[in-house]
Amino acid sequence: MKALFIGGTGTISMGIVRRLSEDPLWEVYLLNRGNRNAEVPANVKQITGDINNEEDIRAKLDGMEFDVVSDFIAFDVKAVERDYRLFNGRTKQYIFISSASAYNKPAAHHVITEGTTLANPYWEYSRNKIACEEYLLGKYREEGFPVTIVRPSHTYDERNIPLGVHGNKGFYQVIRRMQQGKQVIIQGDGSSLWALTFNRDFAVGFTGLMGNRHAIGEAFQITGDEILSWDQIYRTIADALGVELKPYHVSSDFLSEVGAKYGYDFRGSLLGDKSVSVIFDNSKLKRLVPQMTTTIPYHKGVRIALEYVLAHPEKYEEDPEFDAFCDKVIEALEAAKKSV
Q1: CATH number of residue 94's parent domain
Q2: For the chain, what is the domain count?
Q3: Domain named NAD-dependent epimerase/dehydratase: which ranges (predicted)?
Q4: Rounded to an integer, what is the distance from CA 31 to the centroid of its chain?
Q5: Per DSSP, which regions of the chain are E strands?
Q6: Are residues 122 and 138 in the same domain?
Q7: pLDDT tens-digit profile of 119-171?
Q8: Are residues 180 and 251 in the same domain?
Q9: What is the DSSP track for 243-265?
Q10: What's the mean pLDDT when you consider all of the chain?
């Protein structure tokens, strides 16, 4: 069977590509600009190009058909409209990567299923994903376009450390603050619940849907089974670093307001996602992919990631602006406490 992944070298997709590269049943193609070829398994075929150059891609795909096409870099309706034009009649299944952040915030019930209403007034990213889903499912209902919707939550790999609050350059500065004995900001009181999934586990659920006729026209959330509070998540990182966690809890509303003044979209990432407790019911996925389970719990996954990150500091940027932002927020709130 032939699979084409648009992108294919990101956090979610790399785990899938590596898993399929070891499966003799699959022939894997990546369509991207070729910037990260060194990380791609040798038996994976590369189609180099810009997916936004539609005519060039159409020419490069001339005569090719696939069992599965999945776009990991489609973030708005314009992108999925392009994919429909390129792949309608060329693939037996098109898998769209949506997001669990598309679910209603706050949800009517803390247990999330695929039937939970989609609505996110806080985050444009999530609203765009909802619009993509609606377009593709409309094409399925009207024309039989073979779409499958996948909704990941917080997926990570060896290159990433999951956090609730970080700067525009990513997680690295928070790790540095922990190492330096500084306080780190955690949204809310740290007790809200969250699901984390290592990309190797995610790949099991995803590949189990590939080529599966029962997945056509359906949506599936793919997350691990482990549920942790945000305090537990940060303490697990500190334990793996061998340092003491010094948490500083700040309300998500305050972070959203003050963060906007410094160029941080905490309204979307927190109010629209990470500040809300979620527990995912993955029974729909497990009916089709019964082997889907958590094999890399967070206390192991974060050590895998930290081993890589600490061994490759040249790949990560320190973020003095975010470091200063954290200090300003903590100083301002401490001063406010003393004035009461």
Answers
A1: 3.40.50.720
A2: 2
A3: 4-220
A4: 20
A5: 2-6, 27-32, 45-48, 68-71, 94-97, 111-112, 147-152, 154-156, 184-187, 193-198, 219-222, 227-229, 247-250, 279-280
A6: yes
A7: 999 999 999 999 999 999 999 999 999 999 999 999 999 999 999 999 999 99
A8: yes
A9: S---EEEE-HHHHHHHHHTTT--
A10: 95
